[in-house]
Amino acid sequence: MAKTKRPVPGRLRHNIVLIVFTVAFVVVAGRASYLQIFSADYLKREGNARYLRVSQDNAVRGMIVDRMGTPLAISTPVDSIWAHPYTFNSARGNIKELARLLSMSVYELNKLATKNANREFMYLRRHVTPKVAQRIKAMEYPGVFLQREYRRYYPMGSVFGHVVGFTNIDDVGQEGLELSYEPLLRATPGKKRVLKDRRGKIVETVESISLPIAGRDLKVSLDRRIQYLAYRELKAAVKKHNAKSASAIVLDAETGEILAMVNEPGFNPNSRLERKSQLFRNRAVTDVLEPGSTLKPFTIAAALESGRYTPGTWVNTSPGFYKIGSKTIRDSHNYGRLTVAGVIQKSSNVGAAKIALTIGKQRLWDILTSVGFGQRTGSALPGEATGSLRNPDRWVTIDQAAMSYGYGISVTPIQLARAYTALANQGNLVQLTMLPGQEPVYTENVMSKSTATQIIQMLELAAGSQGTGNAAQVRFYRVAGKTGTVHKLVNGQYSDDDYVALFAGVAPVSNPKLVMVVTVDGPRGDQYYGGQIAAPVFANVIAGAMRLLNIPPDAGSKYKKQIVKVKKSGPA
Amino acid sequence: MIAATHSNHQARAAGSEQARWDPVLLFTFTALVSIGMLMVYSASLPVAIQTTGNGFSIAFRHLIHLAIGLSLMFFVMHTRVRYWQVMGPYLLLGGIALLILVLIPGFGVHVNGSSRWLNLGLFNVQPSEFVKLFVVIYMSGYLVRRKDRLREFVPGIVMISLVVAIIGVLLLQEPDLGSLAVISVTVLAMMFLAGVRFLHFIMIMATGIGGMVILTMVAPYRMNRIAGFIDPWADPFNTGFQLVQALIAFGRGEWFGVGLGASIQKLSYLPAAHTDFLLAILAEELGLLGVLTVIILFAILVFRAMKIAQLAEFAGQIFAARLCQGIAILLGVQALINMGVNMGLLPTKGLTLPLLSAGGSSLIVSSISVGLLLLVEREIRTKSWPQKKSA
Question: Which of A6, A378, B25, B178 shows a CA-CA span of 20 to 30 A to B351?
Fold first, then answer.
């Protein structure tokens, strides 16, 4: 092992290799510094774009309750099943079992996942039953997760179907109160920034952006018991008379609170399958009709206000028809000479027309406008119609005459009900509301107190044994109301066999508490008069409502006698 | 950590100080495998939980491999350098046999489109990792045997090229271009250090580079990797996916990292997080500080090995010198390629980071390599080789 003097042959090359290595290590270290210090912001942003996501915490929507606090719409927590398509597609698992739990075929499930392959989220099934949710959770199928959502439930079903409305699957109000009070009821989901792994699983909550805010509860003026009564009676009437549709509204006459509002045909808001758009119409506010004779009290009110008429003024309705130009106004019988009160009681079109032509069209228009026809009621229900009340400048004589018995004007059932509050409240029109316990807002003196009282007395006669609305009578209570039987306009002609039967009334007469309007569209039986079809609904509902509201009876059991007594007492 | 239990007369005569193993090598080795163990555990946790349900499963396997590696290293340290010189050709033949075996269906395990592994029941063996070391051992012997004729064309170039070509053809069947690249560069550098003519060296290097380019161009998946490498952001969800995720990991790390265990990229974003892309996860969790530490440790390892080679050459132990040079280059080049790939400096190769990455064969072979370095250093320091041999 003698050391040789010759230079080690590899010395230069050894150093070259060392230099190359040194350069390589320095380059790698430089690159690391460049990436980790100078490009860090850019790379972090790129990274965040890949895994920072905003996640939602759903909150509960506000409850809708009736005036006694009975729930009409409540949200119940429910789970929805969703998947991260990428992870789901690349996962192996018991897909058969999963598909079965989701009530899908394996083929459908795979097709759905393939279609959404480039997304980060897909619903597999929304709002599953707790049992299914639990099973799927227990499966721990890769990429399949549960999301807490809320399902709207309507304990009263179709009874409150139209007025309460419903929400869509995303918890947004679509119809009825659910729609009109959406801003109040709406739950604001909480938002938080989360870090997700590539399989969509939340790894960490980075920050809370906003907390979930539950929607506020809404207490409405509706009374579950009266609503149910109205629902039951209206449904029975529609069935009995084979009618196309019908509506009924019950108002608190003093406060303007809407106590009941039902329509036929109805639907069950709990069943998505039953939700067909033609069933959703809340006809009581959305549909207009010609009010017919139910408008006559306002014609007479205008006459009394003019000072030219008293309830006892005689009007000659003979011979039972009245020609104005080419048109003829008819009564069903020749009533001969009638008092003004008799015109209401017998519902004489000729009488009403003759009176209207003597008082001037402006006066008639004034009173119809002041009781709110042609204006929305502010009931806060979606899709409310305005109705139409033409300007008197454009009325010709026949228009003025027809208007007096409710033709040539279109109103909604709810407008008609509001107008009757002016009669019930001694001349003060009350503003309608869905919210209970508010201070009532009145439009005072749309007619004088005495006029209102006299009209009510006439209406009591109309609902009496000699009146057209005698079927509206209620045991132990005095009621007042007016029937209406309207020929429907079909293709510009008044039809001879298509009617709307109406009844609008007030009870009890001694201290009016309730106003109710019933409209039945297209009865296809033997009967079609408002007094035959709508008045009994009124009577049955009011009879029940009087007891439910603990209103003391104001008539003896022999109500026939009672009417005689009223006649004797005369105008107050 | 490895106590000096080896006894020989020179050591005894020179005192206990002389008998110890090289502390620099021991320190860097211990540091690198410890960092590796820690990072493999951290990086493999999500994928281990997901595949086996046990978060420690991959780390445990790594620990077993480390134990096997340490045992074999310990064994190697108690052999003699001259044995390896004798064994060289046999080891190479054995290695080639394994490379053939891996290609035979039934023996080879097919993973991700390549058959690189032999199934030995308990674990898989990757013959190409062993072949890398065997080529170095064989080549060291060859360069010693033919040291007087290395400046001639046939023994200096053709014979060596032939050996590399045979191995290359077999590796390309797997395919494992990365290992071929490492072997080629290592052999080339060994020839350069052994003193082949500079002209020959340039020729063979040009051939090698040309070969690599052609091999890349004929295989679409390699072209994709190149495309993904040149502009990973052009198609970050497809060809550039892995690299983009690795770069993001580096960026997230910044100076001191997001903290051990806090990596997000390992949560199924970065494929091969605990094997080929371990450095990216290390960069994310331990930051630039951790990356520089690893780079410096590898630099120390390479430079120390080269220093030992130089000492051996001074001592006239040419085989030992070539062996150390080969191991230095083998470990250094593979580490640099892996780091370069992780940082987007080089196109993606299926190469591990020696001593750190999970991957049993790589860890075992790297440990044996360091064992050989320790063995050479000790023999040179204690002059414990047969006196009949003269330089």
Answer: B25
